[in-house]
Amino acid sequence: MSIVKAVAIFSSFTFISRILGFIRDILSASILGAGIVADCFFVALKLPNFFRRLFAEGAFSASFVPVFTATLTQGGKEEALDFAETAFSSLIVVLLTLVALMELLAPGVIYILAGGFSDDEAKFQLAVVLTRITFPFLLFISLVSLLGGILNALGKFSETAATPIILNLFMISALIFFSDRFETPAHSLALAVSIAGFIQLVWLYLACRRIGYKVRIVMPRMSPKVKEMLIIMMPAALGAGVIQINLVLDMIIASHLPDGSISFLFYADRLNQLPIGVFGVALGAVLLPLLARNIAEGDEKQVSYNQNRAIELGLFLTIPAAVAFMIVPYQLIHVLFERGAFTAADSWQTAYALTAYAAGLPAYVLAKIFSPGYFARKDTRTPVKFALVALVVNITLNLILMQYFAHVGLAMATAISAWVNVAMLSGGLIRRGHFSFDGKVLVRITKYLMASAVMGVVIWVTSSQIADMLDGPLKIKITGILILVIVGVGSYLMMTFITRAIKPSELRSLFGKKNR
User: For 210-220, what is each residue's pLDDT tens digit?
Assistant: First the structure.
C-alpha cells in the first residue's frame, strides 16, 4: 500500500470524526458557553487527554510499535503476539495504579495544574469532580492505543482511525439527550467520555481478534522485549509529548487569566486541530510502522524517500489551512460557535487565539513526520533534549507574551516553540545522515507557499463580498462558509496545477500499490 493511500484511508475516517467533533463543539459552545462550567470541563477533559497523548499515543506508541514491528518482521506472528500480550497486561497494572492515584489526589492535581481555580471554591470543586469522572478514560484509551499499534503495524488503519468517532457520538448524545439530567451539562459530558473509552476498547479488541490477534491478559513479566520497550519509553514521555506539555502549560497559566481564557484557547485549538488530526496524526500513524519496517529490512534509502513524500503531503494540506485560519479566523469562529451562551466577544477572543495557533500549524504536522525518524530507530533520548529546549522557550515566551496579549500570547508561545522543536528534530536527522531534503520537496514547498498566498487573497476578497451572508440566519451563514471553503480550495488547487506543484496525474497515485 502506498503512503498516500494509507494516509488517505486514515484521514477519511479521521475527517468524519472531526466533523462530528465540530458538531460536538458547536453544541458545547451553545450549552456550556465560555464561562466557569466550560473552563472546568475542559480542564477535566484535558488531564486524561494529556496523559493519553503523552504516554499512550506518545511514549507508548513510540516504544511499542517499533519493537512490535521488528519482532513481527524477524520473529513472526507468534513471538509478536506474545510480546503484545505481555505489554498489554503490564500496561493494565500501571494504568490501574495511575487512575487510582488520580482519583485520590485529584484536588492536589487541580491545584497544581489550574491553581487559579482555587480562588473560587465552587469552581475548584467542580473541576475536581469532573476530573474524577473523566479520568478512567485514560485506562481505556491507553489500551486502545496498544491495540491500535498492532493494527497499524499490520497495515490495518481504518479500524484505528474510526475509533474517535465513538467518542464524539457519545458526547453529542450526552449534550442532546442528557444535558439537563445532571447537576450541570458538564457532568453528562464527563460521564460520556469514560463510557466511550470503554466502548472504544471493545471495538479495537474485536478488530484485533478478527485478524487473528486475540490479545489475552497474561501474568505481567519483565521479558527482554518489554524491558527494551520500557527503556525506549521512558525518555519518549517528553520527546513525543512536547506539544501536549506546551498546551498544558498554557492551561496552567491561563487559569490565572480572566474567566473564559481556557475556553478561548480550547475552541481555537479545536479548529486548529482539524488539519492536525486529519493529516498530521494520519501521517505519524502511517510513518512509524512503515519506517520501522524499512529500518528492520536495512533499507535506509526508502526511509528518506518516505519521509520526503510525507513532508510533501503534509505541507500540501496544512500550509493553505494555516493561511485560511489567519485570514478569516473570526468568520469561522463566528459561524461555527457563536450562538446561545457563546457571545460575539467570545468569538473575537477565540479568533485571535486561532490566528496565533495557526502560525504553528505546519510545525505541528512536521513534528509528527520527523519524530518517527527517531522512534523507528528506537531513539527516544534525543527528542527529550529537544523537548526540554522547546519547553524552556515556551515557558519563557508564555510569561513574557501573556503580559501584553493575555491568552493570545500563550497561543503565540506554543506556535513558536513548535517551530523550535521542528528545527531541532529535522536538524538532528540531517546531521546524522538519516535524512536529507531532496530537490523535489523543496521546490514543491515553495510552490505551495505561492499557491497559498494567492488563495489567501482570494478568500479575503470573497469574505468581504459575502459579509452580509456571514451575519445572516444560520443557514445563510453556513452557505457563506461553504462558499469560502469552495473558493479557497478551488483557487489553491488551480494554483498548484498552474505552478505544477502537483500534477493531476499524481492524484491517481492514491490508488497505487507501491511506495515509489
Answer: 988 889 988 88
Model confidence pLDDT, tens digit, residues 116-147: 787 778 888 898 999 999 999 989 988 998 89
Using CA atoms, how far residue 283 sits from 186, 277, 302, 312, in Å, is 33, 10, 16, 11
pTM for the structure as a whole: 0.69
List the end-to-end C-alpha distance of the chain, in Å, as a whole number.
10
Query: Does residue 449 carry a pLDDT above 60?
Result: yes
Burial class (CB in 10 A: 0-12, 13-18, 19+), 3: buried
Q: What angle do CA 432, 3, 269 make, to 5 degrees?
A: 80
Q: In whole angstroms, how large is the CA radius of gyration of the chain?
A: 22
Interatomic CA distance for residues 323 and 459, integer angstroms = 10
Q: What is the mean pLDDT of the chain?
A: 84
What whole-number distance in Å separates Cα of residue 111 and Cα of residue 100?
18
What letter would DSSP give residue 260?
A: T
Cα–Cα distance measured from residue 344 to residue 331, given in angstroms and rounded to the nearest whole number: 11
Residue 285, all three cell numbers: 500513524
Q: In the numeric block, which cell numbers belong to residue 288?
A: 512509524
Position 513 scores a pLDDT of 44
Q: Please state at what angle helix 242-254 crosses helix 77-113, rounded to 10 degrees.
A: 20
Q: Is the dihedral of CA 19, 24, 25, 26 positive or negative?
A: positive
How far apart, in whole angstroms, are the C-alpha atoms of residue 21 and residue 270?
9
Q: Distance between CA 221 and CA 157 in Å, rounded?
A: 29
Q: Angle between the 407-432 and 361-375 helix axes, to the nearest 10 degrees? A: 40
At 515 the pLDDT is: 42
Tell me the three state secondary structure of residue 2: coil
List pLDDT tens digits, range 269-326.
888 888 876 766 667 667 777 787 788 777 778 888 888 888 888 898 899 999 999 9
Q: How many residues does the chain have?
A: 516
Residues 282 and 12: their CA atoms lie apart, in Å, by: 10
CA dihedral over 164, 167, 171, 173, signed as positive or negative: positive
Question: Which of 285, 264, 422 has the alpha carbon at shortest distance from 357?
Answer: 264
**Alpha-helical regions (H) of 328-438:** 329-337, 344-358, 361-375, 381-405, 407-432
User: Who's near 83: CB < 8 A, 6+ residues apart?
Assistant: 67, 68, 71, 223, 225, 226
By 3-state DSSP, what share of the chain in percent is helix, strand and coil, each rounded to 5? Answer: 85, 0, 15
Residues of 78-114 as b/e, b for ≥16 C-beta within 10 angstroms?
Answer: eebbebbbbbbbbbbeebeebbeebeeebeebbbebb
